Protein: Lipid II:glycine glycyltransferase
Amino acid sequence: MSLTLRTISREQHLAYIQSLPSASHCQVPAWADVKAEWRSESLGWFDAEGYQVGAGLVLYRQLPKVKRYLAYLPEGPVLNWFDPNLESWLRPMLAHLKQQGAFTVKMGPPVVIRRWHAESIKKGIAAPDVKRLRDIEADVIEPRAFEVAERLRRMGWQQDQEAGAGFGDFQPRYVFQVPLAGRSEADLLKGFNQLWRRNVKKAEKAGVQIVRGDLSDFGEWQRLYEITAVRDHFRPRPQAYFERQWKALNAEDPNRMRLYFARHNGVNLAATTMLRVGGHVWYSYGASDNVGREVRPSNAIQWAMMRDALAEGASVYDLRGIGDALHEEDHLFGLIQFKVGTGGEAVEYLGEWDFPLNKLLHKALDIYMSRR
Structure:
């Protein structure tokens, strides 16, 4: 197929995304407004008849004191990754980005390579010789994903093989998803493990209420989020980031971002943000207080978001990143344990790939990132 690549308007970009069943929230035009510290550009691929067949949001980050850029396509671009002639899509992109001053290109192909069902993961956790997801035979393997990886390597793209859990990437390589298509609320609840079902019932019996928030509620969100940051030892984003995200994403689509609170006796105990593009719904950020945990607000809020996603016709509920470690010594083990309780599946993507356009500057970036 003969392809041409060119810069497109935000309107063209959004129209193409809206024509698809789903795409990553990191590839909608409004994500550029969320990442305001990056320069952005929308790219479009067109076939010989002039029909648009692909799109990509590029974020440019300038090197200090030098007019050279890291060009980043988070969880994108959105194109036909299984085309045997993948080079015809990516070579024009590399040439264009080099012309724009990029010294290296980073992208995250939205291509799934393996899936592990919850039951398989639970058996793996119980097995003494299993330490990581890869130690368990995957329930689903996508052979075409290996072909994509091989094509990328032949073209000169590089992957960080050390980023085992995917957290060495900018975006997670391993995520946890709950399939929704063709299921009922009863099916979902039945898929939960015994502890999750018990905790959902406990929250209902205790009178935990789930309410929706809006832009004016991000002060309360930030209170809970900063409590969580202290407890879990991470640096919190500022309140302004979440307010900017809300304004940018909901200006593009009023149903793109939501804010939920779990409330008990008039006090907010937990909060979450939810994102949606087409049939794909993401649990994006979560926060909770140190008090009131006995009434299980976190289980209640997740169950409410899943039910809302199901009622609105979503095909997948995505709990986002997990580590790949299946042993208690790992600091991310509790995360996968919590998410496995929903009865979904761990999903491995191809991860992020780099193409050095200037090897010296690319090496300097590698050194900088390794020291962060």
In short: The chain has two domains: 4-108+352-371, 112-142+154-349.
